[in-house]
From TrEMBL:
Residue numbers of the full-length protein present here: 1 to 238 of 349
Name assigned to this protein: ATP-binding cassette domain-containing protein
Gene Ontology terms, MF aspect: ATP binding
Record-annotated ABC transporter domain positions: 2-238
KW Cell membrane (keyword) present: yes
Keywords from the UniProt entry: Amino-acid transport, ATP-binding, Cell membrane, Membrane, Nucleotide-binding, Translocase, Transport
Amino acid sequence: MITTKDLTKVYRSRGREITALDGVDLHVREGEVYGVVGRSGAGKSTLIRCVNLLERPSSGTVTVDGQDLTALAGRGPRAGAALRQARTRIGMVFQHFNLLSSRTVQDNVELPLEILGVSGRERGRKALELLDLVGLADRARAYPAQLSGGQKQRVGIARALAGDPKVLLSDEATSALDPETTRSILQLLRDLNRQLGLTVLLITHEMDVVKAVCDSAALMKGGRITESGTVPELLATP
Ligand code: ADP
Ligand code: ADP
């Protein structure tokens, strides 16, 4: 479902070159929860940002659901439309939720649907359905500031699902949450994976997160994947 081939990313910063990704081959199968784990600076964020097209790779390819995103990322208006289309197939959840504080919970979830040009009535129906799915139907009219961290992340997840993505990317989605809330959010991701057949790619600096929800995982260090396999396989290696 997600494949990267020899993916590299070199940043140029104040005359210095920083190799954030150094030949990453990733293979995430449809319907699995896949974790990429590593310390700060390992290249995890860069990797996930290349998969959701926020970042242009320096070389290599990224394929999501059979579509070569690197080919799409070429410039020009046609490429732009194709890129936006491809993005709706990829949902993203963030460490700090990235909700708009001036909009209600429901309006936050509706935002991607607005961008997709979905009618107001249909947007409302879909947003309420998604809020129900994440257990927050009763907070539709609340504002983000009135919610707990875990509730905010549930809104973030509902919003990520608005475009009916096949793939959900999670960038340290539980790092800002306490252990109990972390467990409930990881359980929600697991449930969505099972109920919707959603493929989940998550990045984390915590092996416990990988143990709790992932089927497979890769260890990342210095822009490279040093080991990968099923979670039982990885835990068995000394
Ligand atoms: P994380 O907690 O994911 O490791 P960082 O604090 O490393 O986040 O990065 C936050 C943002 O700053 C990201 O958008 C990242 O791309 C950018 N960033 C990280 N390191 C640098 C750097 N050396 N120069 C410029 N931008 C950077
Ligand atoms: P992680 O998510 O594992 O913490 P990142 O992908 O954020 O790792 O960073 C990998 C490396 O790339 C780090 O050395 C970081 O400082 C650097 N980096 C990340 N984003 C930028 C950026 N926008 N400009 C320059 N360097 C960056």
